[in-house]
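re: ur question from yesterday

yeah so i grabbed the chain u mentioned. its 247 aa long if i counted rite. heres the sequnce exactly as i have it in my notes:
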Amino acid sequence: MTSLSILPPLTPKIDAILVLDGDGNRLAGKYYGDFLTNTQSASARAAAVAEGNDSGPAVSKSIENLRSAFERQLQSKIQGIAARPDAAEVVSVMGKTAVFCGGNAGQGGGGGDVRIVHIGPANESELVLAHLVEGVYDALTHLMGGATDRTMVLDNLELVFLLIDEHCDGGIILETDGAKLASAVLLRDDDGAALMEALQQGDGMNQGKPMGMPAMAGISAGDMTIGQAFRQAKEQLISNLANRDGM
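ran it thru and got these structure tokens back, copy pasting raw so excuse formatting
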């Protein structure tokens, strides 16, 4: 009998994840593989040629400048397009497929001006990339309390980088479900971990009474991000324990 070889599962792979504001400025992101990660790569040469700065075998411009050039080309394609959280838009940039969600500021759709962009090979399924970016955007929306604008993202940048790491490692997709991604980020966040530990140690000390969570100065409880809520709850718990020990 001829043994049948078992093919490995088809694992989606991406070249980059970018978090861009409404003007195309990168707030966070990562590049993977050989896509704009060294000056000798084909993608670096393509970016240099597109900018009119090809200087032979070695590209003279720095990788960061080449990435900025690529992102400017990307912004020129997606500027003015608002992609719903459940309906990603697709464009082609430098032979790569770019799929994004967001950019709703001023469009009457809520959310904010920040876009999540997944860059994949030209032969990657657009439907697969759309599924990936929609999951990450859903997680970002949860983590930012629904306000995915530039200011909110910059104020919670550590959560954004944790989100990227939970979603993808070296270009290999790890998780796509938005709710699971948001939960994983909060478990890895230092404030969230400290709160969970404090809650476990202080279990029973409050005699079954619910612990209040007062609003932060100038911020109502409904406007807090999950990260801010964790920090506020931790401070409240520590205060309650200190008052109890001082009695």
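noticed a couple things. Residues 226-246 form the longest helix (21 residues). also The CA atoms of residues 191 and 231 lie 6 Å apart.
anyway ttyl
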